[in-house]
Design a protein that fits this description.
The chain has about 140 residues and is α/β, with parallel strands linked by helices. The protein has one domain (about 5-135): SPOUT methyltransferase, trefoil knot domain (Alpha/beta knot), CATH 3.40.1280. About 45% of the residues lie in helices and about 15% in strands. The protein has helices at about 5-15, 35-45, 65-80, 95-100, 115-135, and strands at about 55-60, 85, 105. Helix 1 packs parallel to helix 5 (about 115-135) and helix 3 packs across helix 5. It binds S-adenosylmethionine. S-adenosylmethionine (SAM) binds near residues 88, 108, 112 and 117.
Length: about 140
């Protein structure tokens, strides 16, 4: 990701996460949309350890609220696993990625650019951390 507002957004929240997140970027593939998805999927899946808890970010996924997202992360970590989040490129994620993922999550029904999704995900991870710590960053008040 080039320096710019999206990188700054991600860095702002990533700096607050414990343990600090690691990012692996897959080179943008070329070809038809389906080829791009397949090639990028091969790159994404190759980054995953065999027993990884993979969580795909995809418009076709479920949209948990922040508390449910925090519980999902907590379950993975309590099982001794750091979750791996998979974000697609401009053509989206190949079905082989969403099939491999243990959870497929949508950040609502609107389509966002993947660089923004990285920052939005980091914010939700920080919120999940705050929820689990009882930190007032997350001001839950709705019944
Ligand atoms: C520009 S979007 C790809 C759009 C593609 N046409 C599709 O339908 O997936 C790039 C990536 O950002 C992520 N993304 C974008 N909007 C999202 C949303 N509302 N919820 C979850 N992930 C999203 C997904 O990982 C997606 O593959």
């Amino acid at each position: 990701m080039k320096a710019g507002p999206e990188a700054a957004l991600y860095a702002h929240y990533a700096a607050r996460l414990r343990p600090p997140p690691e990012v692996t970027e897959i080179p943008e593939a070329r070809g038809s949309a389906a080829e791009v998805r397949r090639r990028e999927a091969a790159g994404l899946l190759a980054t995953l350890p065999e027993d990884a808890v993979a969580i795909a970010l995809d418009l076709g996924g479920e949209a948990p609220d922040s508390e449910a997202f925090a519980r999902l992360i907590a379950r993975a970590e309590e099982a001794g696993k750091q979750p791996f989040f998979l974000i697609g490129g401009a053509e989206g994620l190949d079905p082989s990625v969403t099939t491999r993922a243990r959870h497929v999550i949508a950040l609502g029904p609107m389509t966002w650019p993947h660089f923004l999704v990285r920052g939005m995900l980091a914010e939700q991870l920080y919120r999940a951390q705050a929820i689990r710590a009882g930190h007032p960053y997350h001001r839950a008040w709705r019944p």
